[in-house]
Specification:
With 236 residues, the chain is an alpha/beta fold. The chain is built from nine helices and eleven strands. A nine-stranded mixed sheet has the order 4-3-5-2-1-6-10-11-9, sandwiched between helices. It has a two-stranded antiparallel sheet with strand order 7-8. It is globular and about 50 Å long. The chain starts with 6 loop residues before the first strand and ends with a strand. The model has no long low-confidence stretch (mean pLDDT 96). The structure holds uridine-5'-diphosphate. The site of uridine-5'-diphosphate has 25 residues, from helix 1, helix 3, helix 4 and helix 6.
Length: 236
């Protein structure tokens, strides 16, 4: 099977793991997501995974309710590690080899993130789950995804969402919103399309890393994208 992208970084938001519950983990959703990830490994592509934590804790929200932002952000980073362990457990039950690597040291349960080791794991066919965001407060897991994608030399960032891709406006609020199959970095900024937060987006733009935004609820979507099919929106 020929692959357009041999190494990719998948960004899964915490929200995606919560399904309709809106909070915590919906294991039916985790089952589906891990099936998708398993299919990626079967295609032969190498996959790094950055997982969000918004289903458990968002630093900015907790700080609005009275917590210090920095503490709240560390809680958010810990939340991403909780999600990573859940994905690892279910993936390994399905026979997918994985390693969790954390940006905040937590050796009792995962390896510390070391770039060269992460690359080695990928070369050996393991799915590397990169948890703990960037390890720094005031950042997001979108930024972590771009940073890690650049570090591991992923050819594309796959941004999983619950909509089909990027629209000219929010399709839930504006009935005239149109779907955009291809967008340049500049268009996304000028039109305020909100593909990722601005830090993460700038890092992609400056390093010409393409972002593929797609609907994770479409079975087989990740593998089809890796083979070069046009699904969702490509920002490049
Ligand atoms: N976070 C952080 N630094 C990082 C990544 C994440 O401080 O490098 C914190 C931040 O508080 C954020 C929370 O972790 O709100 C969860 O991550 P995010 O909101 O990006 O998750 P997602 O929205 O993708 O589920």
């Amino acid at each position: 099977m020929t692959l357009k992208y041999r190494r990719a970084l998948l960004k899964l938001s915490g929200e995606a793991l919560a399904g309709d519950r809106g909070f915590g983990l919906d294991f039916n959703v985790v089952e589906r997501m891990t099936d998708e990830i398993k299919a990626v490994r079967q295609s032969g592509a190498e996959l790094g995974l950055v997982i969000g934590g918004g289903n458990i804790m968002r630093g900015s929200q907790a700080s609005q309710q009275g917590m210090a932002r920095v503490s709240a952000d560390y809680m958010g980073m810990l939340a991403t590690i909780i999600n990573a362990l859940a994905l690892q457990d279910i993936l390994e039950k399905k026979g997918v080899d994985t390693r969790v690597m954390t940006a905040i040291r937590m050796e009792a349960l995962a390896e510390p993130y070391i770039r060269r080791r992460a690359v080695r794991h990928l070369e050996k066919g393991r799915v590397v789950i990169l948890a703990g965001g960037t390890g720094n407060p005031y950042f997001s897991t979108d930024t972590a995804a771009v940073l890690r994608a650049l570090e591991i030399e992923a050819q594309v960032i796959l941004k999983a969402t619950n909509v089909d891709g990027v629209y000219s406006a929010d399709p839930k609020k504006d009935p005239t919103a149109t779907f955009l199959a291809e967008v340049s970095y500049q268009e996304a900024i000028v039109q305020g399309l909100g593909v990722m937060d601005s830090n993460a987006f700038a890092l992609c733009k400056d390093n010409k890393l393409p972002i593929q935004v797609f609907n994770i609820n479409q079975p087989g979507a990740i593998v089809r994208i890796l083979r070069g099919e046009r699904i969702g929106t490509i920002v490049q």
